[in-house]
Amino acid sequence: MISRRTFRVSALAATGVAIAVGMTTFASAVPSRYATSDTKPTVVLVNGAWSDSASWSGVIDRLQSKGYTVTAPPTALRGLSDDSTYLASYLKTIQGPIVLVGQSYGGSVITNAATGNTNVKALVYISAFAPDKGESAAQLAGKFPGSHITDDPTAPVPTALNAVPYTLADGTGGVDLYAKADKYRDLFLSGRLDDKTAAELAATQNPIALQALGDPSGVPAWLTIPSWYLVSKDDHLIPPAAESFMAARAHSHTVEADTPHAAQVTDPGIVTNLIEQAAKAAH
Question: Where is the signal peptide (predicted)?
């Protein structure tokens, strides 16, 4: 006769085996969760510095209403190599064609993460960096005049940003860069939206590690993957001339609009339309 105690121990052991087996098969099971439909690619949205995945909310609403599967994984903003490697791993969990969208620093991330991934059928740059091999975001931001990120090019930290040192539990540390609250509305929104909304966005911004802006890019995915580019003509962070330069170099399908740096926030309809153009071409 099996005692109640023996039964409980046996049940726990069986549960442990089931969990162990489940964990070994988890990686292969993940892709099915992100399988795309037969008619539309999955749209992956990648945020840049001083924002977060929520900045895509207006775009996500519009794309989902049109039947697209949309995901916006967070960008850690720790370093270009780490950020792009993480995204590359995430993309491998998605079955079927992908339209990969990056805004600002997120453009650098998708440029590196998509290289070698045959499921990525289109790259979409929204007021974004599209670096060539060896280039950094900091270099491209300063390639043409017009950025409001600093009024002192010789300063070690751009004057529109605050440098905040941090220490981790193991004793290592670094420096995070935050956009100054009183500069946020001008830098990202070009004075658009009301002060209250701009203050909320500034308060919830995700900082970027200082080193990330100086990290050099690897081989760019736009060499082999078709790209689309929104040049924001009223961008106060990346000069519009720099955006036009990067778009032309990548042979991107380019749209110019009277939008600020955070076009996905102020003009989600324009951004959605460009993503749809890429999605239809990628299908």
Answer: 1-29
